[in-house]
Amino acid sequence: MDDKEAMEILLSLGAVLKGHFLLSSGKHSDTYIQCAKLFQYPKYSELFSKKLADEFAIDKIDVVIGPALGGVVLAYEMAKQLNVRGIFAERVQGQMQLRRGFEINRGEKVLIVEDVITTGGSTKEVMQVVKKLGGEIIGIGSVVDRSNDQVDFGVKFKSLLKINAVTYEPPNCPLCKKGIPVVKPGSRGNRS
């Protein structure tokens, strides 16, 4: 599967939305990637996860972790492909943390995965959790990188697909200025 095929699958599933969106970063955009549309199909979850896992196949990994909600299915599928544990972090009172009996042991080699990366905010929060617990971050993986090369995690970062989507700070958003209603479709939003 190359970039063109990956994009065709996302488009065919209605996972690439156009409009006026409020991203979890607080920024606005005319493009939204809803990977939940992809992950509802096990065959596509497996296909995309296998392709991404191949990018980390030579790395020694003990556990794969993703932030809830976008990284939950991907972390599970990546762990399955790499034959390691798969867990997720979630926000409790605004702070990312491990719950449900999940743990990272000191010295474990950790791969962090996320469905879509724009600013890298959620991923950086998970990185803090991993470091605090003594895990060693081996890399970051995502299905879609829409950061426009503006994010540096300081470790290996691989994505299946780069989408150059414009983001705006709310006060400078031309879509707001045109009076186009903003929609928040993501995991912290109220519509899907």
UniProtKB/TrEMBL annotation:
<feature type="binding site">
    <location>
        <position position="146"/>
    </location>
    <ligand>
        <name>orotate</name>
    </ligand>
</feature>
<feature type="binding site">
    <location>
        <position position="91"/>
    </location>
    <ligand>
        <name>5-phospho-alpha-D-ribose 1-diphosphate</name>
    </ligand>
</feature>
<dbReference type="GO" id="GO:0004588">
    <property type="term" value="F:orotate phosphoribosyltransferase activity"/>
</dbReference>
<dbReference type="InterPro" id="IPR029057">
    <property type="entry name" value="PRTase-like"/>
</dbReference>
<dbReference type="InterPro" id="IPR006273">
    <property type="entry name" value="Orotate_PRibTrfase_bac"/>
</dbReference>
<keyword id="KW-0460">Magnesium</keyword>
<comment type="similarity">
    <text>Belongs to the purine/pyrimidine phosphoribosyltransferase family. PyrE subfamily.</text>
</comment>
<protein>
    <recommendedName>
        <fullName>Orotate phosphoribosyltransferase</fullName>
        <ecNumber>2.4.2.10</ecNumber>
    </recommendedName>
</protein>
<dbReference type="InterPro" id="IPR023031">
    <property type="entry name" value="OPRT"/>
</dbReference>
<dbReference type="GO" id="GO:0019856">
    <property type="term" value="P:pyrimidine nucleobase biosynthetic process"/>
</dbReference>
<comment type="function">
    <text>Catalyzes the transfer of a ribosyl phosphate group from 5-phosphoribose 1-diphosphate to orotate, leading to the formation of orotidine monophosphate (OMP).</text>
</comment>
<keyword id="KW-0808">Transferase</keyword>
<comment type="subunit">
    <text>Homodimer.</text>
</comment>
<dbReference type="GO" id="GO:0044205">
    <property type="term" value="P:'de novo' UMP biosynthetic process"/>
</dbReference>
<dbReference type="Pfam" id="PF00156">
    <property type="entry name" value="Pribosyltran"/>
</dbReference>
<feature type="domain" description="Phosphoribosyltransferase">
    <location>
        <begin position="48"/>
        <end position="160"/>
    </location>
</feature>
<dbReference type="GO" id="GO:0000287">
    <property type="term" value="F:magnesium ion binding"/>
</dbReference>
<keyword id="KW-0328">Glycosyltransferase</keyword>
<keyword id="KW-0665">Pyrimidine biosynthesis</keyword>
<feature type="binding site" description="in other chain">
    <location>
        <begin position="114"/>
        <end position="122"/>
    </location>
    <ligand>
        <name>5-phospho-alpha-D-ribose 1-diphosphate</name>
    </ligand>
</feature>
<comment type="pathway">
    <text>Pyrimidine metabolism; UMP biosynthesis via de novo pathway; UMP from orotate: step 1/2.</text>
</comment>
<dbReference type="InterPro" id="IPR000836">
    <property type="entry name" value="PRTase_dom"/>
</dbReference>
<feature type="binding site">
    <location>
        <position position="118"/>
    </location>
    <ligand>
        <name>orotate</name>
    </ligand>
</feature>
